[in-house]
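Exercise 7b. Backbone tokens:
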């Protein structure tokens, strides 16, 4: 089945009760039993819920995986992955990553004895310098947030296999429409479904997708035992979102390409970070592992000041100044003061997140209106 068909039908069957084409929102915490243990596969909604299961099957299908798990947020999904580890275990992570992930790793899990190394993975073989017998997990974001670096998933997966380490890829920015990390050898794909999968800025949710049954069982155990699940209503919304993922992504990519091109020719713009540009340092890797380049773009202005960047984002009218990304509407953010404020300035600047950096989530509005908006804000 092709991706566009999978997005609509993958892992889905009509509801067995009345044939409803969309799974009903099973807003129930518990299920009647005829005799103790005599139930229809559902006992308690932390463990299983039919609406959540329908979504989890869809998630597995679009990522070319076997097992899907949905959580109350992207961070809850990451939290479940790190709970596979024990004190003394080590994780090697990309250094340019979502601020909340960095905060979870350093401010929660370090105090439980898990050690994290944050390194640049543009040069994948460099990872081996940090591997020792305690290394249990490689954590990769690609494209990275907000610098849009591209990590070579195939090469990193080969290193993980060689050392028998798990590889998890945060696929939030790319979505499975653009890249399917399990096909390149990743063990776990993670999503903030809050972003493109939901796609309408109306729900917070996270997801994991895996192929290995043993790994899936351990994660299902953690999902149920720790309990960071999502509710049936939210499951329904994300399942609904997934059904238009391919058409939305196609437009995000078209608009992203047009905005990136416009910014590269603007006299006030210093640098544009978008993997579809031939000048992007990892453009060749992006071409080899992504089907297109998405709608996430970061750029810096020649006037390198906090005030200058803030003035630009405040002037935007069609782009809304807001955290988050991946919805139908265009958003603009200022990483240094918003999404990445939880990363210390010194750490932030090491990876290129300057005070003047602006991040755009290019939506699916008319491109003429988006360009005109940038034009009036950049004067
Ligand atoms: C938003 C985001 C997360 C965290 O997800 P939440 O749903 O906000 O908990 C993790 N990774 C990336 C790349 C994100 O953009």
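Sequence design result:
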């Amino acid at each position: 089945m092709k991706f566009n068909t999978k997005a609509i039908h993958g892992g889905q069957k009509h509801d067995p009760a009345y044939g409803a084409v969309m799974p009903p929102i099973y807003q129930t915490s518990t299920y009647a039993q005829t005799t103790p243990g005599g139930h229809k596969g559902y006992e308690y909604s932390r463990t299983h819920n039919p609406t959540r299961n329908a979504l989890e099957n869809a998630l597995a299908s679009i990522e070319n995986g076997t097992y899907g798990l949905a959580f109350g947020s992207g961070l809850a999904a990451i939290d479940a992955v790190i709970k596979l580890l024990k004190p003394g275990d080590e994780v090697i992570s990309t250094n340019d990553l979502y601020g909340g992930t960095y905060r979870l790793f350093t401010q929660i899990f370090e105090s439980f004895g898990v050690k994290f190394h944050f390194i640049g993975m543009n040069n994948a073989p460099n990872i081996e310098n940090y591997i020792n017998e305690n290394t249990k997990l490689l954590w990769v974001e690609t494209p990275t947030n907000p610098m849009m670096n591209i990590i070579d998933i195939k090469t990193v997966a080969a290193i993980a296999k060689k050392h028998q380490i798990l590889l998890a890829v945060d696929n939030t920015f790319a979505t499975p429409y653009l890249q399917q990390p399990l096909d390149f050898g990743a063990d776990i794909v993670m999503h903030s479904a809050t972003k493109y999968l939901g796609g309408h800025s109306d729900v917070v949710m996270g997801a994991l997708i895996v192929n290995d049954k043993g790994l899936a069982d351990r994660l299902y155990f953690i999902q149920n035992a720790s309990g960071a699940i999502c509710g049936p209503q939210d499951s329904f919304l994300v399942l609904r979102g997934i059904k238009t993922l391919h058409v939305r992504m196609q437009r995000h990519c078209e608009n992203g390409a047009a905005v990136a091109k416009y910014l590269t020719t603007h006299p006030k713009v210093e640098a544009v970070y978008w993997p579809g540009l031939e000048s992007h340092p990892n453009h060749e890797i992006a071409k080899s592992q992504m089907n297109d380049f998405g709608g996430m773009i970061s750029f810096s202005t020649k006037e390198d000041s906090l005030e200058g960047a803030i003035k630009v984002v405040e002037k935007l009218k069609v782009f809304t100044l807001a955290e988050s990304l991946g919805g139908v509407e265009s958003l603009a953010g200022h990483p240094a003061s918003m999404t990445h404020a939880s990363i210390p300035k010194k750490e932030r600047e090491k990876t290129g997140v300057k005070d003047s950096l602006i991040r755009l989530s290019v939506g699916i509005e008319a491109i003429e209106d988006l360009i005109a908006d940038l034009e009036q804000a950049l004067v």
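Instructor comment: The mean pLDDT is 96. Residues 73-75, 98, 100-101, 141, 145, 170, 172-173, 192, 194-195, 204, 206 surround pyridoxal-5'-phosphate (CB under 6 Å).
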